[in-house]
């Protein structure tokens, strides 16, 4: 069972995903794509970590998410990937083969027998960015959101902390 | 009764809030957080004011919104705060204690016995802004939207002028 | 019958509109507002064109959309205008009389006896742009989205490829 959760920045999407996931039985793995490359990010990660209870085992992985999903799916009943958008950003900056990575993720997702929650950002509802890399990232995010949402059985759009079931 | 209305720029959120509020009986106060610091803003404010009928008493207040909510709630049955996002922007520019201000607003909201409509902007669905102040404002807006929406009994998301009840 | 479809960049709105429209009987016209002013755009247009089957006749028109809607409505049962936002951008860059153009479009829309699908972008859910032209475009897009959505019998909001019927 894959659940896709999309919303804007600080829309409460991670908290909603955590609440949904925490209500399920079984061992829980939190797959974090964030890297603490500066103080702002380090504080954000520490805050998120403090919000999770000790029932969660945290794995921090900026790039090799498909392999991590496959591996943790063997040992945990509940997986939470937070977030897809940052993983894409990491891949783009590391100049990885994006199409291959996304295909690997879709394969890994389809093989999960437990519950997988995937958090992602909507980044395409502002003005067209004036630099080409940001436009490319925006396009890529939208395309991957579509592909992952299509693979999910359930999807939520979050606004101001309020979930709206859209699938 | 608190009703939270969120949408993008020019999504019709203020007009929808006005229509909802105007349909209720009782004296009506419009709490405007906009300041006419340039011609563009002055025109926007004048346009909004012209759209309201004479049934509304307008209070313009960029910063002391919690006190204004408390005060007007004594004399008016219907309050419309437009908008939360601009109030936050005003507080940030004035270097106020944001956490304290937001807590004061939440207290003031909880004490309103009439109908309070709060309009806010979704600002977190574009590409991550490249300056730190904009990122801080974006984060703050999202957090406050969550807190106020949680305090509301009813919430709407507006797109292209069309309201979608989400709570 | 007018159907309005709004979503962010790469949200799957064009594909959803195409699927809806393709499911109807009758001759089909695709009204494209995109101009291939650079390689990035040329690739995007070619990709979109390849996604459409040969059942569609494509008309490319950056500016004179009201006249094109009127003309094609005589000969085709199904029209798909993709997209409103780019048409507005083209008008703004060409320094056309925007209010007159939008009124012409609303007139043309109201005279369509077949099925008209109109795709548009939500561009107002990011941080306020720091240049005046982008702000003006953002305001204009929101206003026109409201006007066209009001003229539609049916409207969808698309997120991550998932349609949500909002009207």
Helix share of residues of chain A?
Answer: 40-55%
Stretches with pLDDT under 50, minimum 5 residues of chain A: none
Give me the number of helical elements of chain A: 6
Could you tell me the strand content of chain A as a percent range?
15-25%
Dominant shape of chain A: globular
Which protein chains are joined by the largest interface, and how many residues does each one contribute? A-B, 23 and 29 residues
Find the count of extended strands of chain A (DSSP E, 2+ residues). 7
Oligomer: homotrimer
The largest sheet of chain A has its strands arranged as: 3-2-4-5-1-6-7
Distance between the termini of chain A: 13 Å
The helix/strand class of chain A is alpha/beta
Succession of helices and strands of chain A: EHEHEHEHHEHEE
Main sheet makeup of chain A:
7 strands, mixed
Q: Taking all residues together, what is the mean pLDDT of chain A?
A: 93
Specify Rg of chain A, calculated over alpha carbons: 15 Å
Summarize, please.
Chain A is built from 6 helices and 7 strands, in the order βαβαβαβααβαββ. Chain A has 167 residues and is α/β, with parallel strands linked by helices. Chain A has a 7-stranded mixed beta sheet, with helices on both faces.
Structure description:
The structure is a homotrimer of 167-residue chains. Chain A has helices at 13-22, 39-51, 65-75, 84-93, 98-110, 132-151; strands at residues 2-7, 28-32, 56-60, 78-82, 115-121, 154-159, 162-165. Chain A is of the alpha/beta class and 167 residues long. Chain A has a seven-stranded mixed beta sheet with strand order 3-2-4-5-1-6-7, with helices on both faces. In chain A, helix 3 packs parallel to helix 5 and helix 4 (84-93) crosses helix 6 (132-151). The two termini of chain A are 13 Å apart. The model of chain A has no long low-confidence stretch (mean pLDDT 93). The interface between A and B is medium-sized, with 23 and 29 residues.
């Amino acid at each position: 069972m894959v659940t896709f959760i999309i919303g804007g920045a600080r829309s409460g999407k991670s908290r909603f995903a955590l609440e949904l996931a925490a209500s399920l039985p079984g061992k829980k793995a939190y797959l974090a794509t964030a890297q603490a490359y500066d103080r702002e990010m380090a504080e954000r990660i520490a805050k998120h970590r403090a919000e999770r209870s000790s029932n969660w085992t945290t794995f921090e992985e900026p790039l090799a998410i498909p392999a991590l999903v496959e591996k943790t799916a063997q040992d945990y009943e509940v997986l939470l990937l937070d977030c897809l958008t940052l993983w894409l950003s990491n891949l783009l900056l590391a100049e990885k083969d994006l199409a291959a990575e996304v295909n690997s993720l879709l394969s890994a997702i389809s093989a999960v027998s437990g519950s997988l929650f995937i958090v992602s950002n909507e980044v395409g509802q502002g003005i067209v960015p004036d630099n080409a890399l940001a436009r490319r990232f925006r396009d890529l995010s939208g395309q991957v959101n579509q592909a992952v949402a299509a693979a999910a059985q359930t999807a939520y759009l979050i606004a101001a902390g309020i979930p709206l079931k859209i699938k």
